[in-house]
Design a protein that fits this description.
Length: 158
């Protein structure tokens, strides 16, 4: 039995790859990640060429990022309260900076909601095939009927 097909070797390699993925999440360099995982730099570069290893690394990074975002979301209510309290500060500069921050956040929220609504409407239109109102819909349906029947439409006749 070849060495790489041996069950104990596969288990060891899987454990090393898992360690390498975890090391890649916490190390700023490939060299540091390889050292932390107990493998050579060349081995890590070799694994980074494998689709399955890259997929696992991407999944682990996404999970880590999602966890960080969750932590930030948990603190947003407290941060908002602090920012609103700063509007009552005795220092004019602090009040001005807090006011600018509150207005900036409010504008971003408004823009996001507006974009969501515009996107929803576009998706609704795209789902129905109606882009230019009733005129376009009638023309589109006629063109499709002509196309399916093999008869050229008015515009295509010579």
């Amino acid at each position: 039995m070849k060495k790489e097909n041996h069950p104990k070797m596969n288990k060891l390699q899987t454990a090393k790859k898992t360690a390498a993925v975890l090391a890649m999440l916490s190390s700023p360099t490939i060299e540091g990640a390889a050292k932390a995982a107990g493998i050579s730099r060349a081995t890590l570069f070799l694994w980074l060429k494998e689709d399955t290893f890259r997929d696992e690394l991407a999944r682990a990074r996404a999970e880590t990022f999602a966890g960080a975002i969750g932590s930030l979301k948990a603190g947003t209510e407290r941060a908002a309260r602090v920012l609103l309290e700063l509007l009552e500060s005795k220092k004019e500069t602090t009040r001005r900076h807090a006011s600018i921050a509150v207005l900036d956040f409010a504008l971003r929220i408004h823009e996001g909601e507006e974009l969501d609504e515009r996107l929803r409407r576009l998706e609704e239109i795209a789902g129905t095939g109606i882009v230019g109102g009733r005129f376009f819909k009638v023309r589109y349906e006629k063109s499709m009927a002509d196309y399916r029947s093999g008869n050229p439409g008015e515009d295509e006749k010579s």
